[in-house]
């Protein structure tokens, strides 16, 4: 049993050592010779859930630095980044796909062979021929190919389907504001995914692309950089989740000397507008899930908690920002047994010396990270 002065929502947490799940929460009395971990003066929270990461990328200047890697090399990169992410306090993650490796990594994590967060995995992001992310994605043309691509992903074990509705910042020659897919292609992608029992996520910067994807029935929109009132209304009306990924442009604009000229030019165009769109969405009550886009240029794995600070800095109350990257993110990506401190869920917990609600930067340095009730990083009094 964990006993501490501060736990978000509750006071004491009893963990079933065999299942790794929380058995009870509240004002608990120890049972018999039950071991009690005294965390007096510390804070316990749910583990963070990052709704948008790229384990195949490591913050390189350009994605083109990665495309020449062999599958074996890329697998080792992904394993390293998964470990960094877990040790930073992210106990659940939705991984956005590259060369079908993420599903293999997920199986290795589930088997206990590789340390990493509980993973919701994709295979390859679906894009138009020559579209954003084509380097390691699945290029398609037409609704028939769209359906085939979805079926391929599901066959390989994908938990969700990601597709690129607009161009992007980090693909040379790609326009973030331009709609890539036709209406027929978008409807085919979403319909086929839902028929196969998996959810959909779309990369979308431009407002017209966001609206087209929402009308097609997408479940989550990644980035949402150029939102207008109509787009905001559609988010609320259709109960679609926004994953703003504020970390991605933040790191590029602060590394302009090292970034590619094209990335800098695009990011400087979108950065302030991205923040404005996020504020509009948050104020309108759009459901927001925290996701970092970790792995994109200079956006290194292990710094994931900064996304909570960005969300709070620009629009959200601290507790709401934490919940966006715990409970809401877990629900949005399908990690039903994560993101909260309550009976029946996995004991994926973070321990802090101080209170994150008083200073969100505390989230950057957990004293201990527990996954399934076991310490996977740091330490608690008396050992694991």
From TrEMBL:
One Pfam family of this chain: Amidohydro_1
Domain spans labelled Amidohydrolase-related: 43-376
Superkingdom, natural source: Archaea
GO molecular-function terms, A-Z: hydrolase activity, acting on carbon-nitrogen (but not peptide) bonds
Name the record gives this protein: Amidohydrolase
Source species: Haloferax prahovense (strain DSM 18310 / JCM 13924 / TL6)
């Amino acid at each position: 049993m964990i006993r501490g002065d501060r736990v978000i929502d509750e006071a004491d947490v009893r963990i079933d050592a065999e299942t790794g799940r929380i058995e009870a929460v509240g004002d608990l009395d120890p049972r018999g010779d039950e071991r009690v971990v005294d965390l007096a003066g510390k804070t316990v929270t749910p583990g963070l859930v990052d709704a948008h990461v790229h384990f195949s990328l490591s913050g390189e200047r350009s994605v083109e630095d990665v495309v020449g890697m062999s599958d074996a090399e890329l697998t080792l990169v992904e394993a390293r980044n998964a470990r960094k992410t877990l040790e930073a306090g992210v106990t659940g993650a939705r991984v956005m796909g590259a060369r079908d490796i993420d599903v293999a990594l997920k199986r290795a994590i589930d088997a206990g062979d590789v340390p990493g967060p509980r993973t919701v995995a994709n295979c390859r992001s679906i894009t138009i021929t020559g579209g954003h992310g084509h380097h390691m994605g699945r290029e398609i043309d037409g609704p028939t190919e769209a359906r085939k691509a979805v079926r391929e992903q599901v066959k390989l074990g994908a938990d969700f389907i990601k597709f690129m509705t607009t161009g992007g910042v980090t693909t040379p020659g790609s326009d973030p504001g331009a709609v890539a897919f036709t209406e027929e292609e978008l409807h085919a992608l979403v319909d086929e995914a839902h028929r196969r029992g998996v959810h959909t996520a779309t990369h979308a910067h431009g407002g017209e692309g966001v609206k087209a994807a929402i009308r097609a029935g997408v479940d989550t929109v990644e980035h949402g950089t150029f939102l207008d009132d109509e787009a905001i209304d559609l988010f609320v009306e259709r109960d679609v989740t926004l994953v703003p990924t504020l970390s991605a442009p933040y790191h590029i604009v602060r590394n302009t000397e090292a970034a590619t000229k094209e990335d800098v030019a695009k990011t400087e165009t979108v950065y302030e507008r991205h923040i404005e769109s996020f504020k509009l969405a948050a104020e309108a009550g759009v459901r927001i899930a925290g996701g970092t886009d970790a792995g994109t240029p200079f956006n290194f794995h292990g710094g994931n908690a900064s996304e909570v600070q960005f969300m709070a800095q620009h629009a959200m109350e601290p507790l709401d920002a934490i919940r966006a990257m715990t409970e809401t993110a877990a629900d949005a990506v399908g990690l039903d047994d994560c993101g909260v401190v309550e009976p029946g869920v996995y004991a994926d917990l973070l321990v802090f010396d101080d209170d994150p609600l008083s200073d969100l930067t505390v989230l950057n340095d957990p004293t201990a990270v527990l996954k399934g009730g076991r310490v996977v990083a740091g330490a608690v009094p008396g050992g694991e």
